[in-house]
Design goal:
The structure is a single chain. With 117 residues, the protein is mostly helical. It is built from eight helices and no strands.
Length: 117
């Protein structure tokens, strides 16, 4: 998975019908909302608006490239878990340590998900 060489150039100049249709189908975060405004800080709103018009695959590639640019410590700092989430993770880890054979391989999980089971 890699960024297309023209992804940013396309974002700067294109307004595709597919992107417009997607915006109508899905709830949008507005660039003026407190969450987005606070999270992007100094990023130019026009640039972000154009990036959000890219096809899903290219937006995902950009997101992954940005995530991969963080150090492990920076990535870790971005996970805000509730006490309930931490307790559930601790419970699952303890369950796995007690019975490692109970783990289900990822391939099997994916197969079941694709079958709708």
């Amino acid at each position: 998975m890699g960024l297309s060489n023209t992804a940013l150039e396309q974002a700067a100049g294109s307004h595709s019908l597919a992107a417009a249709a997607q915006r109508e189908r899905s709830p949008q975060r507005t660039l003026c909302s407190p969450t987005v405004r606070g999270r992007i800080g100094h990023m130019l709103r026009e640039t972000l608006a154009k990036l959000l018009e890219l096809p899903a695959r290219e937006r995902a590639d950009i997101a992954m490239a940005l995530w991969d640019s963080l150090t492990p410590a920076e990535q870790e700092a971005e996970f805000d878990l509730t006490l309930e989430q931490r307790a559930e993770l601790d419970r699952r880890l303890a369950e796995h340590i007690a019975d490692p054979a109970s783990a289900i391989p990822w391939d099997e999980v994916r197969r079941k998900l694709r079958r709708g089971a």
